Amino acid sequence: MALAGSQLRPSPKLFPRTRCGSSTASQGRGGPMSFKTGNRVRRIEVDGPSIPLMGDVSLPGNKNSAMPIVTAAALAPGTTTVKHVPDLSDMRALGSVLQCLGARIEIRGGSWTIRGGYPAGHSIPAELSSHFRGSVYGLAIAGARGVGASMGSVGGDSLSGRTLEPHERAFAGFGLRLEVSDAGLLLHPGRPKAAEFRIDDHGVSATCIAMILAASLDGRSIIRNASLELETDDTLAAVVQLGASAFREGRDLVIRGPMTGSPKDLTIPDDQNVFGTLAVAAAITGGRISCPGSIVRVAPKAT
Asked: Which of 44, 97, 211, 230 has the smallest set of CB atoms within 10 Å of its CB?
């Protein structure tokens, strides 16, 4: 049985413009990617046994790495091309969020060409923020520029233990105030400065937002007790490629900004979760898969 793989559809175009007016508060509804739809819980039923899973597979880029990397690219000087971006609704929604905040983005298949700009608006529409949790990355754009921004409540899957407290600490560490309420999020305007602080994070987005802010500011920042998730190292490597100095010492991140821009293209690493799922399925069924052209991760080095 041959695997079709996760192919990115080529479609040269600009992101469709989303109305970027005032943000309307959302009532905490999960977006269309949530596991729950109304009172029903989606489930997948598998009838076995299966024949051996055999074939070649083209792995998609890792979404949780792609989101902070394209956000960092939108803050870097000049134009940056990010390749191997997964073709997902969450990524397209993030593109619309970044556009609302002044970025210019053109997509050709899995490549995004990104040029930053001054925010065209200071709000993220609730129709976008309620769709996916990654909408919070838009606040990093506003925070790095010292402007205020508002958004409706963030969407995404309702997973136990998820809070926005690490995100509040990420902004507070640089002197910015993020106000979280049932109606949504409000980032107050301020003058962010490089700093040393504890973020106490075990997720991905809060640590990545802190790294993006640190890499955008002039000076040396130390983010203590940061997340060890693989995607945070992907983001650390990206800000180095974009001209910042950054390295990890255990759970502490040392970053000196600002990003100076770079002529090199950035490439999103493969999604290790997709690979792991297929590898386990092949092992269970007695099959064999291969991933030609897989993208090897670049470990961030001290600079």
From this structure: 44
What is the number of helices (H) and of strands (E) in the chain?
8, 17
Residue 259 near residue 303, CB atoms below 8 Å: no
Is the CB of residue 258 less than 8 Å from the CB of residue 251?
A: no
User: Could you give the CA distance from residue 148 to residue 139 in angstroms, rounded to a whole number?
Assistant: 9
| 161 CB neighbour count, 10 Å cutoff | 6
Choose among 16, 57, 11, 25: nearest CA to 186: 25
Q: Long-range contacts for 156-163 (Cβ within 8 Å, ≥24 apart)?
A: 156/30, 156/31, 156/33, 156/34, 156/132, 157/30, 157/33, 157/34, 157/35, 157/133, 158/30, 158/34, 158/35, 158/36, 162/133, 162/203
104-108 and 13-14 as β-strands: parallel, antiparallel, unpaired? antiparallel
Question: How many CB atoms lie under 10 A from the CB of residue 253?
Answer: 27
Predicted confidence (pLDDT) per residue in 36-70, tens digit? 444 555 677 878 788 999 999 899 999 999 999 99
* Whether the predicted model's global pTM rises above the 0.90 cut: no
